[in-house]
């Protein structure tokens, strides 16, 4: 029986969501195959929650000592959204230690976590993307740089991060500077994107048994002005239609593009690609290499719509990463 370290928490605004994802993984993990250990990582504090105790993690080899005995982990199930679990930092650490993990590797994680860099790479594949401006905290005249390229309305968001933390929709000129300040509180880099009116679609992709599978496309219908953090995690503020009620050719195109991007970006584990469908075209928004796995999250619902149980989804993720390493 494999010892599975389910890592959750992290150092971003997605901490609470990550903890919920980790708890769902722990709940549904196949106890006949795996022995789960819930590991909370936040800053320098790494602890394993074991029998209502918090056991410190030995960072020298990512193990725990209980009653004088060392317990090692065979696999890491990565449920940390944001840094350091989605940006490649922990992936490099586990690579050095030779411990398999369920998410994409260092290079892919680092690239896809940077929204601006990722969009440039995806655009080079011939995929439509929204017009955008990438700004650093010390960029001279950021407002002027935005007006040169982007018209209103537009979105302002941290360049590195997820769950729409720090994101704003700007409709009026006077809203721009407060939106920049809000985003810069979350990150030293921000992305300002043009607003594209259309339907928000998302598609999960996984490699299992060596085969890349695209899940049924889901449409997100927010009851707020856009699908922000509150709408994502409040069941009454957004509707997630899976499978999406869209023409079959659009669904097929979305799945094909997502599966192709999964391969081209060298992804592993389960990944979610987000799009806007507008004027009969799909515009790539971003990719989440450690997507939410909580009760409110989309990927588990996609897996169920694909005919898999949540337990089967997690089992496939673990088995694939063991075979990969």
Uncertain segments: 226-233
Mean pLDDT value: 92
Structural class: alpha+beta
Number of strands: 18
What characteristic shape results from the CA principal axes? globular
Integer tally of domains: 3
Task: Quote the CATH topology of the largest domain.
Answer: D-amino Acid Aminotransferase, Chain A, domain 1
Radius of gyration from the alpha-carbon trace, in angstroms: 20 Å
Q: Kindly estimate the percentage of residues that lie in beta strands according to DSSP.
A: 25-35%
CATH domain class name of the largest domain: Alpha Beta
Distance between the termini: 17 Å
**CATH H-level name of the largest domain... which superfamily?**
ATP-grasp fold, B domain
Major sheet description: 7 strands, mixed
Q: Could you state the order of secondary-structure elements as H and E? A: EHEEEEEEHHHEEHEEHEEEEHEHEEHH
What is the correct CATH architecture of the largest domain? 2-Layer Sandwich
Total of helices: 10
> How helix-rich are the residues, as a percent range?
25-40%
Describe what is shown at a glance.
This protein has 325 residues and is an alpha+beta fold. It has helices at 15-28, 89-97, 106-113, 115-124, 142-149, 176-184, 229-233, 248-264, 298-305, 310-324; strands at residues 2-9, 34-42, 45-50, 53-56, 63-66, 69-72, 75-78, 128-129, 132-136, 154-158, 168-170, 189-194, 199-208, 211-214, 218-222, 238-241, 270-278, 281-288. The longest helix has 17 residues, at 248-264.
């Amino acid at each position: 029986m494999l010892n599975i370290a389910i890592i959750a928490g992290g150092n971003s605004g997605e901490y609470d969501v990550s903890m919920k994802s980790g708890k769902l993984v722990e709940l549904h993990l196949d106890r006949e195959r795996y022995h789960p250990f819930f590991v909370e990582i936040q800053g320098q504090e790494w602890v394993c929650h074991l029998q209502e105790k918090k056991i410190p993690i030995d960072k020298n080899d990512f193990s725990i000592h209980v009653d004088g005995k060392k317990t090692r982990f065979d696999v890491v199930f990565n449920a940390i959204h944001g840094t350091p679990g989605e940006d490649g930092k922990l992936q490099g650490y586990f690579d050095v230690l030779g411990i398999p993990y369920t998410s994409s590797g260092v290079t892919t994680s680092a690239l896809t976590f940077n929204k601006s860099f990722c969009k440039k790479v995806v655009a080079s594949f011939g995929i439509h993307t929204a017009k955008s401006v990438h700004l650093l905290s010390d960029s001279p005249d950021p407002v002027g740089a935005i007006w040169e390229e982007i018209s209103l309305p537009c979105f302002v968001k941290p360049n590195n991060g997820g769950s729409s933390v720090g994101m704003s929709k700007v409709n009026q000129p006077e809203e721009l500077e407060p939106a920049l300040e809000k985003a810069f509180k979350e990150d030293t880099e921000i992305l300002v994107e043009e607003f594209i009116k259309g339907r928000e679609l998302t598609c999960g992709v996984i490699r299992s048994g060596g085969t890349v599978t695209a899940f049924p496309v889901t449409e997100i219908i927010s009851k707020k002005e856009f699908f922000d953090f509150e709408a994502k995690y409040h069941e009454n503020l957004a509707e997630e239609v899976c499978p999406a009620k869209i023409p079959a050719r659009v669904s097929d195109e979305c799945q094909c593009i997502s599966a192709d991007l999964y391969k081209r970006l060298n992804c592993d584990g389960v990944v979610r690609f987000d799009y806007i469908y507008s004027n009969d075209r799909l515009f790539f928004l971003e990719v989440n290499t450690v997507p939410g796995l909580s009760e409110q999250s989309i990927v588990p619902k996609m897996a169920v719509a694909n005919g898999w149980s949540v337990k089967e989804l997690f089992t496939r993720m673990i088995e694939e990463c063991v075979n990969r390493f």
